[in-house]
Amino acid sequence: MESELSNSAKRVQGFLSAMGFSFDVKELPGSTRTAQEAADSIGCAVAQIAKSLIFREKKTDRPVLVIASGSNRVDLKKIQKLMGLKIEKADGNFVKGRVGYAIGGVPPVGHDEPLETLLDRDLKKYETIWAAAGTPFAVF
Ligand code: 5CA
């Protein structure tokens, strides 16, 4: 229930509801900090976890969001080749400061500012996918 969610999870639920999505953010008793932990806590395949990874575009210092299937590794060279984006992994301070959520709970939506976003096509294979909702215990 929304009233019982922590502040960051409430923020994600608020965004989803405001945008007209009927997704319910759920806080689980088990950790969802990593894709594997989330899959174990939810009881789904790790490939059904949409992990939201934040990178830093070197030239502009802007955050870039990559939403990838939990079983895939993000290939930075491939992204650079296809998109012309020079990006590197962001550290925890950058993620929290620029995106508004701590690593382990970064959601695919509801950030401090709109983010340039790359989406892994593999996620379309699944009827149901799960993503982080602001904390290492919250998903939708
Ligand atoms: N809540 C789950 C998905 S439901 C989740 O956030 N999974 S994740 O894979 O998107 O988030 C963990 C990711 O955070 C790791 O894949 C890694 O890219 C990143 N990460 C973990 N520790 C660090 C760190 N010290 N610095 C930068 N990134 C990190």
Bound molecules: 5'-O-(N-(L-cysteinyl)-sulfamoyl)adenosine
Globally, the shape reads globular
- Indicate the mean pLDDT: 96
Based on helices, strands and strand pairing, what is the structural class?
alpha/beta
Extended strand count: 7
Helix run count:
4
Q: Could you characterize the architecture of this molecule?
A:
With 140 residues, this protein is α/β, with parallel strands linked by helices. It contains four helices and seven strands; from the N terminus they run αβαββαβαβββ. It has helices at residues 7-18, 35-42, 76-83, 92-99, and strands at residues 26-27, 49-57, 63-69, 87-89, 116-119, 130-131, 138-139. The strands form two sheets. Strands 2, 3, 4, 5 and 6 form a five-stranded mixed β-sheet that branches. Strands 1-7 form a two-stranded antiparallel ribbon. β2 and β3 (63-69) form a beta hairpin. The longest helix is centred in the first third of the chain and has 12 residues, at 7-18. It is globular, with a radius of gyration of 14 Å. The two termini are 12 Å apart. The mean pLDDT is 96. 5'-O-(N-(L-cysteinyl)-sulfamoyl)adenosine binds next to α2 and β2. Residues 32-35, 38, 49, 51-53, 89, 91-92, 103-106, 131-132, 136, 139 line the site of 5'-O-(N-(L-cysteinyl)-sulfamoyl)adenosine.
Tell me briefly what this model is.
The chain is α/β, with parallel strands linked by helices and 140 residues long.
